[in-house]
Design goal:
By secondary structure, this protein is an all-alpha fold. The protein has two domains: 3-99; 170-501, Neurolysin, domain 3. It has helices at 3-34, 41-59, 62-77, 83-99, 103-123, 129-148, 158-164, 170-192, 208-222, 259-276, 293-307, 311-324, 326-329, 334-341, 358-374, 382-394, 421-440, 444-449, 454-463, 473-480, 487-501, and strands at 231-233, 239-243, 246-251. β2 (239-243) and β3 (246-251) form a beta hairpin. The longest helix has 32 residues, at 3-34. The chain is globular. The structure holds zinc ion. Residues 267, 271, 297, 300 line the site of zinc ion.
Length: 503
């Protein structure tokens, strides 16, 4: 064995151990968010914290650093697109990042996050912001401390954004969002000045098992592999990778809602198909898993909206949905249904928001995060700041904090900063990838109308999924579509909603 081969083998062995630990962490997290009884919360917080520390310790082991140092010149000598070179390069980048965060902060963060999530789950239904406020204050302090580990930076949010959307800064996102906002606001205004679509029939009783039956039929057709996945129930839907052979999704069934559970499931299936499509050879290394939050959301938003809310999709699937719900939908035409699931309105809930106004919800959160980090907004004033922004940007005000500042899990299950921009980046990128796939295979539109998704899924797997984290998001974007660009997204919205609302 050459020196490099032996060193690489030692590196892989250490990374495999970290990957094992992270897989265990994922099972604990999944269980916490699905079936764990309340009484398990405190112990689970300790377990998650212990596992997070163990993973951090193993991954920041100086011996791993030495292996990487020894391998870097070798990586340079390899072709740029070699898997080995990528393994060394990506691991080195992640190692450098991880070693900048002290172990005690990792432990504190993990413990605090688990506790906060638990408090939020109880506080939200009771509209009790005062109960989460002290936790959120601590979260802000920890988020600042975490970001400070990466000094120097231009903005305190930069390291937080960089850790989910590598290569992007607060300033880049501000510019991109301003550009997008200028296009979206007039479209939203022109639509919401018209009479709203009638979607009352979506708000009747729909039996959860029946919604599930239909959702399963769809995501199987999409290509989500149930041999390596399953669907469960939770408070805030998510997809999670336990390992290459086990990528799970979750959804929720609020009372009198058809759209929320159905589209949440389609959304999470997009995340999961991405993870399922990663090259199996990357298992046990940092290359397994998606490239960034934005690229991940490009897939969830693509399968949820671009495909799942398209006319062709419903031409194929609507008769089957009607046969499951003859009482609720028997007298609703395809056209009425298509309009209802694409209703554009100034609403309160991000996850229910239509494609046109969705990004305005994201921008509100992004701006509030920056203000919190900058110290120009306090946690105590956050609920009112939230209401004020909704009033100003969307013309609506939530009657309480439950559907205001308490609505999203992100700040209660993670850090403040870097949590939301990925959704909008995903909408933009999803439209770019879709346009590119259509360019290569114009027959995709027709296929969707027949409930066939293998060409589209195949393009995504070939160009995006299989690479995992081998290429960073900027590299992947450069390889596939050149650079991030809002034009295809705006064109997509104009075509679709122009036809729906005769703009
Ligand atoms: Zn998502």
């Amino acid at each position: 064995m050459t020196d490099h081969a032996a060193t690489l083998k030692a590196l892989r062995a250490q990374l495999a151990e970290v990957s094992l630990i992270n897989g265990i962490n994922a099972v604990l997290y999944w269980d916490q968010s699905t079936y764990m009884p309340n009484g398990g919360a405190a112990a689970r917080g300790q377990q998650l914290s212990y596992i997070a520390q163990l993973s951090h310790q193993r991954f920041t082991d100086p011996a791993l650093g030495k292996l990487l140092e020894a391998l870097l010149p070798y990586a340079e000598s390899l072709p740029a697109d070699s898997d080995e070179a990528a393994l060394i390069r990506v691991t080195h980048r992640e190692y450098t990042r991880a070693t900048q965060v002290p172990l005690d902060l990792v432990a504190e963060l993990s413990q605090h996050t688990a506790e906060t999530y638990h408090v939020w789950v109880g506080a939200r239904p009771e509209n009790a912001f005062d109960r989460v406020q002290p936790y959120l204050e601590k979260t802000l302090e920890l988020s600042r401390r975490y970001a400070e580990c990466f000094a120097p930076f231009d903005h305190l949010a930069d390291p937080l954004i960089d850790s989910s959307d590598y290569g992007m800064k607060a300033a880049d996102i501000r510019t991109l969002f301003a550009e997008l906002r200028a296009e979206l606001v007039p479209i939203a205004r022109a639509i919401t000045e018209q009479a709203p679509a009638d979607d009352a029939f979506l708000h009747q009783h729909y039996e959860p098992q029946d919604i599930e039956k239909f959702s399963l039929e769809v995501i199987k057709r999409y290509g989500y592999d149930f041999e390596r996945g399953r669907l469960d129930r939770t408070a805030h839907p998510f997809a999670i990778r336990l390992n290459h052979g086990d990528v799970r999704i979750t959804t929720r069934y609020p009372k009198n809602r058809l759209g929320d559970p159905l589209f949440s499931t389609l959304h999470e299936s997009g995340h999961a198909m991405y993870e399922q499509g990663v090259n199996a050879a990357y298992e046990g290394t940092p290359l397994a898993g998606g490239a960034s939050s934005g690229v991940h959301e490009s897939q969830s938003r693509l399968w949820e909206n671009v495909v799942g809310r398209s006319l062709g999709f419903w031409q194929h699937f609507y008769p089957s949905l009607q046969s499951i719900f003859p009482q609720q939908l028997g007298n609703v035409s395809l056209d009425q249904f298509y309009r209802a699931v694409n209703k554009v309105e100034r609403s309160l809930i991000r996850t229910d928001a239509d494609e046109v106004t969705y990004n305005l919800h994201v921008m509100i959160r992004f701006d509030l995060e920056l203000q919190l980090l900058e110290g120009t907004l306090s946690i105590a004033d956050l609920p009112e700041a939230w209401h004020a922004r909704y009033q100003a940007d969307l013309g609506v005000r939530a009657p309480d904090n439950r559907d205001g500042v308490l609505q999203d899990v992100h700040w209660y299950g993670g850090l403040i900063g870097g949590a939301f921009q990925g959704y909008t980046l995903g909408n933009i990128l999803g439209a770019q990838f879709y346009a590119k796939a259509l360019e290569a295979h114009p027959e995709i539109t027709e296929q969707i109308g027949r409930g066939e998704f293998s060409t589209l899924h195949g393009w995504m797997r070939e160009n995006i999924y299989q690479h995992g984290s081998k290429y960073s998001a900027p590299e992947l974007i450069a390889r596939t579509v050149g650079k991030i660009d809002i034009a295809p997204y705006i064109t997509y919205l104009r075509n679709k909603y122009g036809a729906l609302y005769r703009l």
